[in-house]
Input
Amino acid sequence: MGMVGGGPGAFIGAIHRLAATMDGEIELVAGAFSSDPEKSKKAGETLYLDAKRVYASYEEMITQEASLTGDKKMDFVSIVTPNHLHFAPAKLALENGFHVVLDKPMTFDLKEAKELQRVVSATGKYFCLTHTYSGYPMIKEARERVKKLGEIRKVVVNYPQGWLSERLEASDNKQASWRTDPSRSGKAGAMGDIGTHAFNLAEYVTGLRVTKLCADINKMVAGRKLDDDGSVLLKFNNGASGVLMASQIMAGEENNLTIQVYGEKGGLEWKHSEPNSLLLKWPDAPSQILRSGTGYLSEVAKHNTRTPAGHPEGFIEAFANHYRNFAFCVKASIEGRQPNEEWLDFPGVEDGVRGMAFIDSVIESGRSEMKWTEMM
Amino acid sequence: MGMVGGGPGAFIGAIHRLAATMDGEIELVAGAFSSDPEKSKKAGETLYLDAKRVYASYEEMITQEASLTGDKKMDFVSIVTPNHLHFAPAKLALENGFHVVLDKPMTFDLKEAKELQRVVSATGKYFCLTHTYSGYPMIKEARERVKKLGEIRKVVVNYPQGWLSERLEASDNKQASWRTDPSRSGKAGAMGDIGTHAFNLAEYVTGLRVTKLCADINKMVAGRKLDDDGSVLLKFNNGASGVLMASQIMAGEENNLTIQVYGEKGGLEWKHSEPNSLLLKWPDAPSQILRSGTGYLSEVAKHNTRTPAGHPEGFIEAFANHYRNFAFCVKASIEGRQPNEEWLDFPGVEDGVRGMAFIDSVIESGRSEMKWTEMM
Amino acid sequence: MGMVGGGPGAFIGAIHRLAATMDGEIELVAGAFSSDPEKSKKAGETLYLDAKRVYASYEEMITQEASLTGDKKMDFVSIVTPNHLHFAPAKLALENGFHVVLDKPMTFDLKEAKELQRVVSATGKYFCLTHTYSGYPMIKEARERVKKLGEIRKVVVNYPQGWLSERLEASDNKQASWRTDPSRSGKAGAMGDIGTHAFNLAEYVTGLRVTKLCADINKMVAGRKLDDDGSVLLKFNNGASGVLMASQIMAGEENNLTIQVYGEKGGLEWKHSEPNSLLLKWPDAPSQILRSGTGYLSEVAKHNTRTPAGHPEGFIEAFANHYRNFAFCVKASIEGRQPNEEWLDFPGVEDGVRGMAFIDSVIESGRSEMKWTEMM
Amino acid sequence: MGMVGGGPGAFIGAIHRLAATMDGEIELVAGAFSSDPEKSKKAGETLYLDAKRVYASYEEMITQEASLTGDKKMDFVSIVTPNHLHFAPAKLALENGFHVVLDKPMTFDLKEAKELQRVVSATGKYFCLTHTYSGYPMIKEARERVKKLGEIRKVVVNYPQGWLSERLEASDNKQASWRTDPSRSGKAGAMGDIGTHAFNLAEYVTGLRVTKLCADINKMVAGRKLDDDGSVLLKFNNGASGVLMASQIMAGEENNLTIQVYGEKGGLEWKHSEPNSLLLKWPDAPSQILRSGTGYLSEVAKHNTRTPAGHPEGFIEAFANHYRNFAFCVKASIEGRQPNEEWLDFPGVEDGVRGMAFIDSVIESGRSEMKWTEMM
Output
C-alpha cells in the first residue's frame, strides 16, 4: 500500500494505517504524506519506510511505483487527503493500474464523482470508499435481520457531534480548519463530513434508496461558512419515511451515530456507543440483544469479527474490515482468482456517487422554500 | 373529586384515579363514569362510592353537586372522556363553580380550546391539563438546568410507540377504536394523542415557543383514517432548530418519550424509560447523571418526589404530582390562601391552546407543499 | 387500616400509607403514630383522620378498635415502628382479632420471631411482612422464568447503599440513629436492614433454601456499633453456590439491589434501578429483555401491574402490590370467601422467621473462625 | 518478534499477533508456532514469514536467532502456549538475551514463577505478562481516580463467563480441552484462567495488596477436573474488604469483567462490556461518566488511546497497549535510552508471581475448613 496524505496531525491518516495493517494482510511500503516534501520524508521515517519510497508528491509516487515490477511495486493506493484533493490522485492511480482506497466524501463535487465512477468502470480496478460504519459486524447483521421486519415503514438515523460548538476554525485546529472551509470541503460542512455517513448507513442497512428529501440546514455558530447542523425528512423508494440528523453543534455529544429501522413486524436499533450489540424489538415478544462474536449470527457478521463474544471490537476493527475485504479482493485479482462474495462487501464508487448526490440535494433543499426536493 | 368518564375498560380513567388519590389529598366522592347509567352505577360500586353520588350523566353530576354545600360538595371535576367529550363538561363544570382537571389534548378543535380558555379566565377557577410528563421531577430539574446550557440551539423530542402497527381499530380494541376515529379524536391521530405531549414537553423544558414547523404526516397502516406517524422540523422563537417525532407504528416500541436539548455550552437528555435520571453533557468535562431523590436537586424537583434516591418513582407518581399540586391550589383557594409558587407548576389552559394550535398547524403543514407553516 | 408508628420524620411510615391506599382498596381510619400522644395527634390531623381514632398508644388503639363492631372497626393493623417495637403490637393485634402488616425485619430477635409465628398460626389471621422487592412484577416473572433455567448453580444478590459512609448517627439523623443502635435494631445493622431483603429475594426467586453460609461482617466506619458492610458466601439446598452482599458504606450507591441467577441452561438478571425489565441470558441465543406491562408475561406478573408497557411503575407500586394482595385476602376473609391463589403471594411469617434466622446465622458466622456456619 | 505457539486454532495466539503489530512498532519475523513442525511451517506461510525463520521448536528458534546479529535478529519472544509450556521457553529466551512477552497465568506453579522472577532479575531483560485488562485506558484512569476516593473500604471484582456450562472438554474443543486439564493448566481452572485477571485488576487499580482470602471453589459440571466457579472473600493490606468472583458456568455470560471500588468519599465502576467509560459515584453530587479519548483524562490514559472520544476502542487495542509500551521499552533499550515512566506501565514478573500465589492460596482456601487463608 502507498499512502497519499496522512502526515503529521492528520487524524484520519493514522486511523487508515492502523486499520490497513492490523490484520497482517497489508503492508505500508510507500507514501506521499504531505505536499511539503520535507514533512513527507519525516513521516516516512517515523513509519519505518524505505526512504526511497517516500515521495515528494503523489504524482511522483504513482508514476515511480508504476514503473516498478511485481512484488517490488505497491499494489494499491490509499488516499486520505481533504476532499478537494481526492479526485486527482484517485484518477491518476486508477489510470496507472492501481486499485484505490479513498476517504469519504468521495470528491469535491458531484461532477468529479461521476467522472471518477467512469474511470473506475473503465479501468476495472477495485475501489473502496471508507464509510467506516458499514464495516461493523452488527451493522452487517442488521442488514440481514432487516429482512425479517416486513415492509419497512420508518428509518431514523442520527449522527450527533458537538466538537464544532465553538468556532474552532478561528484557532489553529487543523481538523476544524479544512472541514469548515468551502474551498477544501466542498459545498457542505456537517452534511458532507458526517451526514454522508448517516445517509450511507441508512441505505446500506435497509437496502432502500432515498427518493426525495426536505432539509433544514443551519449554520449555528456565528461566522461559520458551512453548515454545522441539519435535520432532514426522507422518503424512500418503497414509500417509507425517515429522518436524518447530522450536527456538529450538539454540545457534549461525541460520535454516537445511531440507526433505527421499523417494519410492519418489528424494529431494530444500533448505536455506535455500543457497537457490538444489535437490538431487535418485537410488538408481542421480548426484545432481543444480538451480540458480536456469537455463534447465532450470520456468516457475513462472523467473517467481519476477530474475537469471541464479550471481547469488544471497535472503530479501528470496523475500519479494518473494509481494508481486509478490499485486500482479499486485490490479492485474488493479483492471483487471477474470483473474490468471495463476502469480500466484495465494502463501500464502492456507487456509494460515493450517492453520497455526493445527497450533498447536492440536501444543500439545495436547505435553500428551497418548497417542502420536497428530489434526490439528484 | 367527581369524575366524568373512566368507566370499565378505560385505561386513562384508572390512571387518573390512582394518581389523584395516592397522596391522600384527594378523595373520589362522585362520578358519572359512563354515558350508560347502568355502567356508571356499577363502576361506582366497584369504587366503593356512595350510590347517591354516582350519576347518570355529567350534567346531572355537576348540577346536583353544585346544589350541595360545604364539605358535602365535591371540590373539582376530573374529565377523562375521549376528546370530543372534553369541552362541554369542562365548560359546564367551570361555570358551576368547580375547578377542573382535563385529559389531553384539551378539546376537539382549536375553536373549542380558545372558548375554554375564555371560560377559565372568566370563572377564575383552577384548570389542569394532564400532560403527564412535565410531572416528572427530573423534567422539572431539566427545566432548571437548561438555563445553564447557554443559548439553546437544538431540541429533539421523540415519542415512539408501536401499538398501532396493525389495524387494531378493525378489532374491538376500545382504545384503538376512538383514538383513530376523526369523529371522536379530532383531526389528528398520533399527533394529537402523543405529538401534543412531545410538543408540550419541548416548550416546557426549554421555555421557548415554536414559531413555525414543517411536517411529514403519514398514515402508514392501510385503511387508517388518521395519522399514525409523523416527523416535524421545528423553529423556535430564539432561532433554535428542532425535530419532533411521534409515531404509533414504530413496531416494538413501547412509550419511550425522549427529549434532548443542546445549548452553546452543553446538552441534556431525558428518557421516559429511565425517568429518574437526567443526563447532562459537557464538551470538556465528564457527563453527569442527576438522580431523583438526591439532595443536590432543585427545590421544585424535590417537592415533586416522595422517595429517597434509588427508590424509583414512575408514571403514576408523575401523574400524581399534577394532581397533588392542583389539590394544594384548590385547598388554598377554599381556605382563602395564596398558593405557593411551586404548586402552580402544572399544565394549564394555555398549554391546552398551544397543543390544539400545534395540531392544526402540523396537520396543515402535512398537507402543504411549502416547507414552512407558521404556528397558528 | 390502623397504623402503629409512622409519625413525623418516619420515612417508611409515609411509604406504607402511599402503598396501602393507592389502589383504593384500603382506607387509613385509625392510628397510634407516635409514643408521644401529642405527636400522634398532630400526625392524625395532617392525615385527615377522625380525631377520635387517633390514639395515644398502640395498646389503646387495639383495645378500643377491638371493641367497635362491623364497618366501624378497622380491619387490620399496619406496624411501621423500629425493630424493637415490632413484636408486642403485632402480637396484641393478632390476639385481638386483627390481621397484621409488619415492616421487616420481623422482630428484634429470632426468639420473638418464632413466638410470633406461633401466634399467627394460632389466631389464623393474615400476616404480611413488607419485603418490598418481591412485590415487583418482574421479580414475580423471574420466579416463573427461573424454572426454565435448568438446575440452578449460582445465585448472586447484591444490595449496595452508601448513605452510612459517614457516621450520621452522631448527628440528629433519625433514620441513622435507630438503624445503627443495637438496642433498637437488634444484633445486626446492614445485614438486618437490607441483608434480609437480599436474602428474602434470593430464596423467593429461586425457590431454594440457604443451608449454610460464610460471612465477612464489617464495621467500616469508626465508632459504629453495628455492621455496616458484609459479604456472604452461600450454599443452597440443591448444592448451588451463591454470594450475598449488603453494604451501607459503598459511597455513591443509592439502592440498586440486584439479583442474578444461573442454571444449567441460562441465566437471569434483575436490577432495582430498572425494575420494569428482566434480562434472560442464553448460551447460544440472543439475550431477551422482558418488560412489565406486556402481553407475554405470566398471569401473576400481569396481576401485579397497573399500567401498559412503557409506563414505568416503581417502588411505591411494588410496595402497594403486597398491600393490595393482602387487602384482597382480608376482604375475602371478611366476606367468608377463599382467596385466589395469586392474592396469597405476599411475604409472610415464615419469611420473617427465615430472615431472623439469617441475621443470627450471619452474625454468628462473622464471628467464627470456621468457614461454614449452618443456617439456624 | 518471534512467537512460540499460536498455531492453527489457537485463540490467543491470533490476538497476540493483532495486538503486537497493530501500531506498526513491532514486526513478526520468526516463529515456532507448533510442536508439530509441519503445522508450524504452514502457520508461517499463512503469516507471510520468511520460511527460514519458521522453526520446528522453540529451542531451535531461540538458539538460531541468538546466533544472528543486529537487525537480522528478532528483538524479543512472545510465548502464547498453554500454561505448562510457559516456563521453559521463557527461561531459555531470557538466558539467550531476548526480552519476553508471556501469556498469563505466568507459569504452571508458584515454584516456576519464583524461578522465572529470579531469571528476569538476573538477565535484566524486559518481561511483560499479558493481563489485558490493565491495558484499557479507562482502567489506567481508574487507577488515577481511585486516589480521590479517600481510604478504600470495599472492592468488588467479578469475572463471569458461561462458555463451560456444558462439558465441552468431552468434545474436541481445543480451548476447553487444555484449560480444564490439570496436566496442562496447573492446579486451577477458572481461578487460573480468569480469576488471576480479576485479582490482578483489583490490585492494579487500587494499588492495594490482598493479605488473606476465603474461597468457595466449585466444580459445577459433573466430570470436570478443575474448578469452573468460585467466589472469594478478600482482605487487603489497608483493612479494606473485597469480593472476587470468577466463573465459567454463569450460563449466558460472555466476558463482562467488572470492578467496583469504594472509598470514604466516593466510588468508581468499570465494566468490560462498555470499556470506554468509567463511572464515578459521589454521595452528594451527580455521578460522572468519564470517557476515553477526551481532553480531561490523565496523561497516562491519553497515552494509551488512539482515537478521539466516541470512537470505541476495544480488546485488541487494550492488548496492543501492553505490546506498544513494551516495544517502546525494548527500542529504548536497543538504543541505550532510559524508557519513559509511562512506557513501563505493563504487567511484569511481580504480577506473575502474585498471580501464581493467588492460585495457590485460593485453591488451598477452597480446601480448608478455616475461614481465612493467608496469601502465600
In short: Residues 214 and 233 of chain B are 5 Å apart (CA to CA). The longest helix of chain B spans residues 315-334. Chain B has a mean pLDDT of 96. The radius of gyration of chain B is 20 Å.
